[in-house]
DNA sequence: TTTACTGTACCGTCTGGACGGTATTGTCAA
DNA sequence: TTGACAATACCGTCCAGACGGTACAGTAAA
């Protein structure tokens, strides 16, 4: 019977939530961040509108979850890459560079949810703002030269924002060139930190 | 005095158009980029809805004008600052830095219209995308080192995108530090170009 | 007379979300 | 073990209101 599949209640819900979140990002990308309707999301997610509202009681809750989803994803990656117990722990800057690369290589508009949230109410981006500030502080504190760290941060910020808007301004070669250059910078920082330790 | 200025028909219209464009940006900022309604814009601009639709027959036309308005502003500034006949002609990079500084110093969300256009339909940003690509090519061609130019471009892109989203990530000091650093870079480029000429 | 509007009334469509229902699973006393 | 009840995870329908856009009559300046 179906019962043999260990699909317990929680897993069911979690699955639905993720499906809905992914669907919301897709719809946002396709119909414009400001035209995200619950009906469209529900349909795309293969869920009824009632089911959608069950998981996210209001549209605002959905938007918040969309931002949080992105943040959690980052936080997990960052923790994993910089884990001092791992074989090759990275510095925060190295991890950030890697994450930015992945961000740009992801299917276009994977983070369109962020835009949808912003379109609805700019305050939904407040957690993202605080997150970025904390990240920047960490990058500055780990670097030889805080200004360089700041510049690196902004370069990546520029790159990812172009990507977020799906503005194909940079070629792949240009992107790669920049990432390699930043990686060198990060490597130098790392060696410096190791030497002075 | 003011009456002596022949406020002709065109000027009247132009005035209305600018008032509407400014109002649209304000409304976009206040109610979220995706919640820009024609009624709200008309009210804010002190224009009837009929008058709004007289100037911009459809919402799409308004959005396009919003983007074009920003682009024209930039183009005019750029032409003025880099005019070889002026006393102190700047390089494109120097002008771009200056423009980015002004962008960040403007009243918050002066360019929210861009976000509103994007929220409605991402394709409205196509002209902006092409514009950025042309700018980047110009910066690269004028610089000693194309990669450095690209990095400078991205730093400014990151700075202005944070500003566009009204994410107060950078302090004023940090912004100034970055701007000064970029200005030095641009100055070095300029001297190099002058020496090799 | 033309231009550049104002003001009002209206229409069709879409949207968030409230609501009532239902099937499945979990709990727990008898 | 079972039967009553409750919680979970949805489905499908409905509706008041908002929105973009149209139509049209009026007006004030050039």
Q: Helix coverage percent of residues of chain A?
A: over 70%
Q: Any idea of the CATH topology of the domain at 60-196 in chain A?
A: Tetracycline Repressor, domain 2
- Largest interface by Cβ-Cβ < 8 Å: A-B, 41 and 41 residues
Contiguous runs where pLDDT drops below 50 for at least 5 residues of chain A: 1-10
Oligomer: homodimer
In CATH's first tier, which class of the domain at 60-196 in chain A applies? Answer: Mainly Alpha
Q: What characterizes the major β-sheet of chain A?
A: none
Strands of chain A, total number: 0
Radius of gyration of chain A from the CA trace? 19 Å
Beta-strand residue percentage of chain A: under 5%
* CATH architecture field of the domain at 60-196 in chain A: Orthogonal Bundle
Q: Roughly how many Å apart are the termini of chain A?
A: 61 Å
> Which structural class is indicated by helix and strand composition of chain A?
mainly alpha
> Number of helix segments of chain A?
9
Order of helices and strands of chain A: HHHHHHHHH
Give the mean pLDDT of chain A.
90
What characteristic shape of chain A results from the CA principal axes?
elongated
Give a quick precis of the structure.
Two copies of one chain form a homodimer. With 197 residues, chain A is mostly helical.
What report would you give on this structure?
The structure is a homodimer of 197-residue chains. Chain A is mostly helical and 197 residues long. Chain A has a domain of 137 residues: Tetracycline Repressor, domain 2. In chain A, 74% of the residues lie in helices and 0% in strands. Chain A starts with 8 loop residues before the first helix and ends with a helix. The N terminus of chain A is likely disordered. Chains A and B meet through helix 6, helix 7, helix 8 and helix 9 of A and helix 6, helix 7, helix 8 and helix 9 of B. The first copy, chain A, binds a DNA duplex (30 and 30 nucleotides) through helix 1 and helix 3.
